[in-house]
Amino acid sequence: MLIVKLNFSQDRRVITTAVPFLMISADARASGLGEQGVATTPDAFSQHWNPSKYVFSDNLSGVGISYTPYLSKLVSDVFLANINYYKVINERSSWSTSFKYFSLGDIDIIQNPQDIPILENPNEFTLDASYSLKLSDYFAMAVTGRFLMSDVKLQSVDSDSDSASSFAVDISGFYQSDEQAFKNFNGILRAGFNLSNLGPRMKYEELGKKNFIPTNLKFGIAFDFILDSSNKFSLNLELNKLLVPSPSIPIYNSNDQIIGYNQADVGFLSGVFKSFGDAPDGFSEELKEITLAFGIEYLYNDSFAIRAGYFNEHENKGARKFLTFGTGFKFNEINLDLSYLLSTSSVISPLENTLRFSFTYNFY
User: Fold this and answer.
1) How far apart are CA 101 and CA 99, in angstroms?
2) Which residues share a beta bridge with 194?
3) What is the pTM of this model?
């Protein structure tokens, strides 16, 4: 089973979940902006970040495909693949769907030295669909339904083990103002939120326990500076909090020393409410569980983009800290985006020095 495990101390309490691949940025544009997208301008990959944005799209529909190598310094066959499609129904509504597939690569199982290796390919995936509706000229909301499957068992080792599955819903909202004239530029303000992966825990039979899925609450704000008809840049800020119980129940060894922490064994809805106030060190620790992402994007003539971003997570909550860089090109109906990640933390990201790709075809 793929669950991130770290050595806990009294100060280091990292929240763990099942299917953590859902927290990986699924497209190169968002990845270049510090891994954020809840309040950025709409694109084909808004399904992951905030499907409410689709009704503000300038295109009638689009399909997006992305590929993200994972642990590329160690292996070549672990990756995240993502395909998205959206359709604007009319000026007030749209629908969209996406499929994410996370491969853990090929694993050779050998029980005895003389045996022929048995090949296993554990994997996880999600399939979802959304409906978005404009509630006013400036604000839209969307609801998403999602099916999750985690098939990370090794069948050749335990033929009786089962895949784990669950379902989840997302509720999101997006605001976009009219273009406003200022002294030296025009501007557009955007804001958004997404409550994602709200659903039951997943149970892996071989472990005999249920694991929370990564329920998230994202808030974002952005502002476009439109300098002229050819030059525009945007500033984007996003905050994120996992709505999963903090590891707060001490685990003791035979000498009554704390050697780790467990999460509370509660239902997923109780876990959401507990996540706002269950950290052992109180409100100060709750603040440490909020991640911050900042990104800037420059767009020339709606055909060439340069991006940069920074992501920050507290040292005691995972220590993910990295810079991101990206670029994008548009050729008529086609968009091609690339991004690159550089860790700034002592905890090296699995995506360190990884080049990510996204391809979009737009229908006007």
Assistant:
1) 7
2) 172, 218
3) 0.88
